[in-house]
Every structure is written in structure tokens, then in C-alpha cells.
Write a structure and sequence with these properties.
The protein is 46% helix and 10% strand. The chain has 228 residues and is an alpha+beta fold. Helix 6 packs across helix 7 (179-189).
Length: 228
């Protein structure tokens, strides 16, 4: 059984979706967002104390993209990646790296601009939203005419896109891309494994928490994200 270090409704959601798609047994270990010293085993798996992280026997993996790549390769029967030698594998790897290196960090400047400046955060967030609009146009073009990121094969890249696009709902009125992005989001969200992952993470179809005051079913003093 895998150990899965998570904070419900956080970036670890993408890895939970992959675990549910695979159908492997795993033990979720809830991390307290504002006291990551517990359990002590968390720091041994990920010295940065960030979720997600997984422990699979002697294998210890952290960073969202790495966890998704590991799980897709570890459980090939689930078919969540093109196999080595498949012509679409290059595009698949490009998607995972782009999502990890470009799309995911952009959200940090929008959601937590205070970590990127010692002064006024408004400019950091405004620039992030401007870049998000440009990113949305590229994403729309990439998904137009496709069922999934790499054509007709559902992969962990689609899961990652789903989560990152879903975060747009934290800011009312924000829309990433256009119809192709919206339709892709709906297709991923309709999958039974994704619906199970949402229920387990206490999320609605917009990936908003049903109970913002809870993490893993326990009360937590969490700051409210302010998009003003």
C-alpha cells in the first residue's frame, strides 16, 4: 500500500485523482497546513514539507509532476501515459513539464503574491493575471479539436490541466481559455474516479471546498484567499 501525504483541496488533489484512476490501495496521511512538522515521516519523504508526496516501499517521490509521472509509469495497466516509443510520448512529457514549470507557478503569483515582493502585491497579481490570459489562449489552441491533451488517450496530463484550470473558480468571473478548455474540464470532471477524488477532498464541481474551515475533516485556521 502506498502512503500518500496530502492536504485536501490542495495541489495534492491531482495525485489523488491519479490514484483513484489507477485503483491502487493507498493510505492518505493528512498534513496540517500550518504545522508541517507532523508526522515526522513527512520530512523524511519530502524535506521541503510540501504536498503531494508518496512513499511506495523504498521509493519516495514528491513534486506534483514527478508523482504523476511516477504513478503512470509504476502502474502501466491503468494506461495513464503513452508507452516509451509511442509517437505521442514527446507531447505528453512536454505537457507535464509545461504544467509544472509554467502553469502551476503562475497561480502562486496570483494566489499568494506576498511571497514574491516586499512591497505592494497588486502589481504582482495583476501581472500574473495578465500572463494567465496569455496562457489561456495557448491552452485553448492546444486543446481545440482534441478530446485529451495528447489526442484520444486520457493521461495524467489531463488530470493536471483539470486541477489547474479548476482553480479559476476562486476568482468569480475569471475564465481560462475558451470553449475547448471548458469542454475538456467538463470531460475530465465527469470521470467516475475524478468525482470520487472530489468527494474525498470535500470539493464541489468547481473544485471549491464544501467546508473551507476543514482539512481532512478536521478544523483548521486557514487564511482566506483575497483576489482584490
Amino acid at each position: 500500500m502506498l502512503d500518500f501525504y496530502q492536504i485536501t483541496g490542495s495541489t495534492s488533489f491531482a495525485v489523488r485523482c491519479a490514484l483513484e484512476e489507477i485503483g491502487v490501495s493507498y493510505q492518505p496521511i493528512d498534513i496540517e497546513p500550518f504545522d508541517r512538522s507532523r508526522p515526522a515521516s513527512f520530512a523524511q519523504v519530502n524535506p521541503w514539507r510540501r504536498v503531494p508526496a508518496i512513499c511506495d516501499g523504498e521509493a519516495e517521490v514528491y513534486e506534483t509532476g514527478a508523482c504523476l509521472l511516477y504513478l503512470a509509469e509504476r502502474f502501466p495497466a491503468a494506461g495513464l501515459e503513452p508507452p516509451p516509443g509511442d509517437p505521442s510520448r514527446g507531447a505528453y512529457l512536454r505537457w507535464l513539464v509545461w504544467l509544472s514549470d509554467t502553469f502551476r507557478p503562475l497561480w502562486e503569483r496570483i494566489m499568494a503574491p506576498q511571497f514574491f515582493t516586499t512591497g505592494d502585491t497588486a502589481g504582482v497579481r495583476a501581472k500574473g493575471l495578465e500572463e494567465l490570459e496569455e496562457l489561456g489562449a495557448v491552452l485553448e489552441a492546444d486543446l481545440r479539436g482534441r478530446t485529451w491533451c495528447v489526442g484520444d488517450r486520457f493521461t495524467v496530463a489531463d488530470i493536471y490541466v483539470y486541477m489547474l484550470v479548476g482553480w479559476q473558480h476562486y476568482k468569480p468571473g475569471l475564465r481560462i481559455g475558451g470553449d475547448a478548455v471548458e469542454e475538456h474540464y467538463a470531460r475530465v470532471g465527469e470521470r467516475p474516479a475524478i468525482a470520487r477524488a472530489r468527494d474525498l477532498d470535500d470539493l464541489d464541481e468547481r473544485l471549491l471546498r464544501h467546508h473551507p474551515e476543514l482539512r481532512g475533516g478536521r478544523p483548521v485556521d486557514a487564511p482566506v484567499v483575497d483576489f482584490r
